Amino acid sequence: MSALPDTMLAAYLPGGSRTESRTVPVPAPGHGQVLLKVRASTICGSDLRAIYREHLGSGPEAYQGVVGGHEPCGEVVAVGPGCTATVVGDRRVVYHISGCGLCDECCRGYPVGCLSPRRAAYGWQRDGGHAEYLLAEEKDLLPLPDSLTYLDGACVACGFGTAYEALRRADVSGGDTVLITGLGPVGLAAGLLARALGVPLVVGTDVSAERRAQARALGAVHHAVEAGELAVLLGDGACVSVDCSGNGAGQLTAVRHTRRWGRAVMVGEGGTLTLDVSPDLIHRQVTLIGSWVTSVHLMRELLQNLDRWGLHPECVVTDRFPLTEVDTAYKTADSGRGGKVAIVTDEAGA
Length: 350
Ligand SMILES: [Zn+2]
Ligand SMILES: [Zn+2]
What we know:
Blueprint: E1 7-15, E2 18-25, E3 33-43, H1 45-52, E4 72-79, E5 91-94, E6 97-98, H2 104-107, E7 120-121, E8 133-137, E9 141-143, H3 150-169, E10 177-181, H4 185-196, E11 201-205, H5 209-218, E12 223-225, H6 230-234, E13 238-243, H7 248-256, E14 258-266, H8 277-282, E15 287-290, H9 296-309, E16 317-321, H10 326-335, E17 340-344
Helix pairs in contact: 3-4, 3-9
């Protein structure tokens, strides 16, 4: 093993739409921990909404001034004592919330909902992926199949995992039609995964013509239209709707274009949904599902399925920057024009 450097570059998100790069010590893995060389670290809508522009939230749930980035993927370069399933050279995706491992939510496999004050999300409460190296708990790591790139893995760490969970929670199968409202990176992921699951009709909607065109070009949807055109394509509605817009209008579109006995899943964070409960839900027997990030086991299942399907999540990435250009990366992501923005090293595609 080549000797590790003493210091590394790391990027912080001080708020006010700024980034701050610092040189900091390379951490040493303690008991049960590993050190990853970060190969790819993608930027998420929630990084922009709740950290980069302004620090939302308060108390332990708020951003704690740590290294940013909650979608890291990398290669193990050092292993601490007590690790049992990881060796140097392993390629790993980080499940981006470190839970206590003991509470009801952790036992269900959902550390995202960990009820303990020890819960810490990478890039929020503990150092994340916008650095050359990342200290992670061994239990938070998932194997990256050889056929997938590090950038594929970073895309799974939050966005694709979240989209897959939504589809699985709604029991999506080849017998369903699917509507996706909001064609940002998570909406694109939901479309690509629905198609991979055999859904014969995936329709997407977004207010942005550029995003509709991108969804079509990627093959994430069969049709991408404005909300006013949905009834023509979907008739009585889709069997399953997935809202990835995170705004009230998109959420309402999703519910109202869910057909009788259908399922509507809310994934996009934020927004206020106002429903006319009797006609919108009760009389049409619609099931409304809230789905937050994903579980460890479904993320593992997704990684295995991506390998089988030959599907590469990195296809949603439109812009790649080195860590030294983290500020441009965030400005690009915040412009909302393109798709997913990634911070990568040269070996990201390896
Ligand atoms: Zn995310
Ligand atoms: Zn827990």
